Amino acid sequence: MEDTNNTPIEEPNAETAEETAETSAALQGRRQEKIGLVTSNKMTKTVVVRVERQIRHPKYKRYIRRRKKFMAHDEIGANIGDIVRIVETRPLSARKRWRVVEIVQKAS
Fold first, then answer.
1. What is the pLDDT of residues 60-102, one digit of tens each?
2. DSSP 92
3. Contact of 87 with 30, CB cutoff 8 Å
4. What are the residues facing 88 on neighbouring strands?
5. Residue 107: φ, ψ to 5°
6. Domain 33-105: which CATH number of 3.20.20.80, 2.40.50.140, 2.130.10.10, 3.40.50.1100
7. Residue 68 has what DSSP assignment?
8. pLDDT per position as a tens digit, 29-69
9. For the whole model, what pTM was predicted?
10. What is the mean pLDDT of the chain?
């Protein structure tokens, strides 16, 4: 087979298609996991988890604390003050894309 410039075109064979499928499956891989503090449990089967991370300021080289809140589906029954592990999942509602996997530390 040739294209418009008379250069030969290689046809895709089954072996490369299988290798591509395996590689893409390996790249999709694992779901993101985060550990954070439960700040609200007033909704039914939903908690708000605050996740903190530290970034280094590009100019001043100091560490800055960044926070983000995630809505997470909670079948376990986490309470305010618990430290929980959340994992990424399919969209469960308009704002919920995370699920509580375990309670790492109960609130005292």
1. 999 999 999 999 999 999 999 999 999 999 999 999 999 999 9
2. -
3. no
4. 98
5. -70, 145
6. 2.40.50.140
7. E
8. 789 999 999 999 999 999 999 999 999 999 999 999 999 99
9. 0.72
10. 87
| CA neighbours closer than 13 Å in the CB half-sphere of residue 5 | 3
Contact 36, 51 (CB under 8 A): yes
If you ran DSSP here, which 8-state letter would residue 5 be given?
A: T
- Overall residue count recorded for the chain in this entry: 108
CA distance 8 to 12: 13
Q: What is the pLDDT of residue 11?
A: 58
- What band does 108 get if pLDDT is binned at 50, 70 and 90? confident
Give the start-to-end residue ranges of the domains of the chain.
33-105
